[in-house]
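Q: Hi! First time doing this. I have a protein sequence and I read that you can turn it into a structure. Is that right? Here it is:
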Amino acid sequence: MKWPLTLLFAGAISLSAQDVAHSPAQSAAPEPVLKQNPLELLRQFEAPANQEYELGPGDEIAIDAAGRPELSAHHVLGPDGRITLPLAGEVELNNKTRKEAAAAIDAALAPYYSQVSATVSVEKYTANRVLVLGAVEHPGVVQFDGQPTLLEAITRSGLPGAQHAAAPSQVLTLSPASSLSAIPERCAIYRGNEQVAWVELRKLLSSGNTMADLRLRRGDVVFVPNEQQNYVSVLGEVQHPGPVQLSPDMTLASALALAGGLTEKAGLSSRIEIVQPSTGKTTYIPFRSVLSVQGNAAEIELHAGDVIFVPQTGFYKVTNAINQFNPLTSLFTLTMLAYH
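A: Yes, that's right. Below is the predicted 3D structure, encoded as structure tokens:
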């Protein structure tokens, strides 16, 4: 089985385009690396526009079955994305569009009713949410009726120097004198446990670039760092993937511990990968070495912006490409292919 892993860093990384790291299983000869436009990479990370909504846990829906008033009812999708219908029992609706959900309901009711034609409407978009953490006034879940966007998620969570909205569901407005300074200099978007995009938000906004308000996906985690503190990202097979505050004496073992430790999918045979955009280096450390104070893990000095990635157990072919981009937004792309 193959799967791609892409980590995006939007920052002022000053690295040579020829800096390429390879796994020991690869040839020593570097493979050619093609530069990609950094804004194009952000556009690829951005969620599609006008994407049809897919139902999720907690969503409140209304089912209308023409000519079957006994089937017309309101339902709330459970944590497993299912609803329960008379006679038909449980029906899986998670990640289905309205049309797909209606078709699934028709199919479930077909053995009990003839010519059933259901329509589904969404009454409350509970599952359409983004989690905002870090240096905001009201960290937590932000729910959306429409497509989530980065600036809306951040401003609705509250920013220093912003005028408070009348209700939490409204977008906060920034005072003219402090509009730009109130915007975070940068933020991170975590998508699942394998993707992170660092966005130079203030630079993009001051230049009028629309990518400052890029479209998010449901379930994204937006992290606004404290500008007085530094962070590393711990991703992959750890219990709590995401940002970890960097301390002067932090070791690889302590960073993994703050992320909750490894999951059972990692295993003791895992080879942990440390990507350091500031130096252009990628280091591979066996997990067993992390457990030993005599191992080379003790020699790893972590820096702000580093990414620690714990893969699943298996054989991995890794190709890292570091490209130098314009000052507006620089991105570092890591592509990993895994074989099972």
